[in-house]
Design a protein that fits this description.
This protein is mainly α. It contains 11 helices and no strands. It has helices spanning 2-18, 22-29, 31-48, 52-59, 65-85, 89-96, 102-113, 115-142, 149-152, 161-167, 170-195. The radius of gyration is 17 Å and the shape is globular. The chain starts with a helix and ends with a helix.
């Protein structure tokens, strides 16, 4: 998945640089519709998790603690990084709002704030996913199973789920899926809210 994403990015940069024609212009003009299609496909993915509602009833409000902590930690990390790099708060927190969902974050921030920040958002959230793959085995051994969900963020229901299955237990996997669904649903809202911060 990571190799495919990086390859697609490199091919996109190459195409935009050396092969500008009607096809690339059509894709650029249709970016909003591509985003809507992506959101529709994510909705299908969430709907396919038939055990989500049952698990929500089982865990009640407790299930919100982990995604709330992940969202708060991500936004705080984005704000601190913005202070260190001199990036405006609205930009740094919007980028951090991706919670590891690099495809949606890159497109959305490109539409809201331009291609430069969209590229940064794509790469930073892709790096979060890559970091998750390498850190989950260590975290599961030294910090506990539930802690493995934090670096995965919104990807804990799909791309990093195989790592959860391999290195954690059944209960953590269920909560991982629920966390991914909640974080994925929150990403567009968080990006929109952060992009309107006046600081």
């Amino acid at each position: 998945m990571v190799i495919i994403a990086v390859t697609a990015l490199v091919l996109g940069v190459f195409t935009g640089t050396f092969w500008q024609n009607g096809f690339t212009a059509l894709l650029t003009a249709s970016s909003d519709y591509i985003l809507y299609l992506l959101m529709f496909l994510v909705g299908i993915s969430i709907g396919l998790h038939r055990g989500v509602l049952k698990s929500l009833r089982q865990y009640h409000v407790r299930i919100l603690v982990i995604p709330a902590g992940i969202i708060a930690g991500s936004l705080l990390g984005g704000a601190l990084t913005g202070l260190l790099t001199g990036t405006p708060l609205r930009q740094s927190t919007a980028i951090a709002s991706g919670l590891g969902w690099y495809s949606l974050t890159g497109i959305t921030i490109t539409n809201l704030m331009g291609a430069h920040l969209g590229s940064i958002a794509f790469l930073s959230n892709l790096m979060r996913e890559i970091f998750s793959f390498f850190s989950i085995p260590w975290i599961s051994r030294h910090l506990g199973y539930f802690s493995c969900i934090a670096p995965a963020g919104a990807t804990s229901e799909d791309t990093t789920l195989p790592m959860m299955i391999r290195y954690t237990d059944e209960e953590t996997v269920v909560i991982s899926v629920l966390n991914g669904v909640i974080c994925s649903a929150a990403v567009p809202v968080l990006i929109a809210l952060c992009s309107h911060i006046s600081l």
